[in-house]
Amino acid sequence: MIKLSVPILQQNNDIFQLVKELPFIEVARRYLPGELRHQGSRWVTRCPFHEDRYPSLVVYRDGWKCFGCQEHGDSVDLVALLHNLRPLEAARMIAADFGIPLPDATQEDIAQARQATLLAKARRELKACFKVKENEVYQRLSSIYRAVDSKLAGIQTEEDLERLGGLYHIEPILEHVLEVLRTGKMTDKVAVLKSDRVKRWCNK
Fold this sequence. Notes:
alpha+beta, DNA Primase, Chain A
């Protein structure tokens, strides 16, 4: 847990200033869902605010910017965008997570900050579970696709064609599903994972 010095807390009751005293990289590590990779004096990761195939969000020592969707800001902006919070709610959430005491905080403020922290934790855990499931399905369907492609490549006779020709219909469907899981929007990925066809393939 990172704590600010007592003199700073005594001299400044502004919650935004207190939060901004935190090393930004620690805030980024706590809230950004992707892995941060160190590159020189900065860090990069995939942006959570758009479908980001390649890391386009850059974390600096005092803030962040995505060069894909152009979102940018400081620690409060980051948490507010991630969890759909107002700036003050985001600042209080950060303060609660990092153990920063707020001299002017009421019991209601503290309760709201704790609730926001619990909700954010639940969202992160849910997103992590979804990612695990998505990866499992992708690996399973990739294996099926390779098997289908291999069988189609081995067709040599009319008998083979009659027996395996139906796979020509399945192959493009598999290609489409895999492409959605690689690069599609979250809503499209959810639809794919919930489809009866994908469930049947994964349960074989």
